[in-house]
Amino acid sequence: MKTTKAFPAYTGWVAWSLWTAGVLLLWFGGVTGDAWRLLFSLSLLCCNFWGFIVFYFSVRRHRPTATTDAKGNAWMNLVACATLAFLVTLVANGWMALHQAIYGASPPSLIGPISNL
Questions:
Q1: Global pTM?
Q2: In sequence order, what are the residues at sequence separation of 6 or more whose Cβ sits closer than 8 angstroms to the Cβ of residue 19?
Q3: Taking a C-beta distance cutoff of 8 angstroms, is the pair 15, 51 a contact?
Q4: Contact (Cβ atoms closer than 8 angstroms) between residue 59 and residue 79
């Protein structure tokens, strides 16, 4: 693979840090219930969205060389499919978080009703 620009390794860490911060905000809002509507929205819009943008712009610069073998093509196809899966997951998670933040009465609970015990 070749790229037209130098690949700074810190962009991977920035993307990972933003995504992790988004997951932590979502978790904190769901567990504590403190300002959960704001935290769900911030998690989606500020952290996860920008983490994907940083990741995408760092990955999209890579192009196959003229001598790329079948292994290189398979690797690039795998990265492209993983990037698409990452985007689909973020969109689904973002839609559910925003829907819950707008229409939900409380953060979602993973524990069902205790009255069934």
A1: 0.66
A2: 47, 48, 51, 52, 55
A3: yes
A4: yes
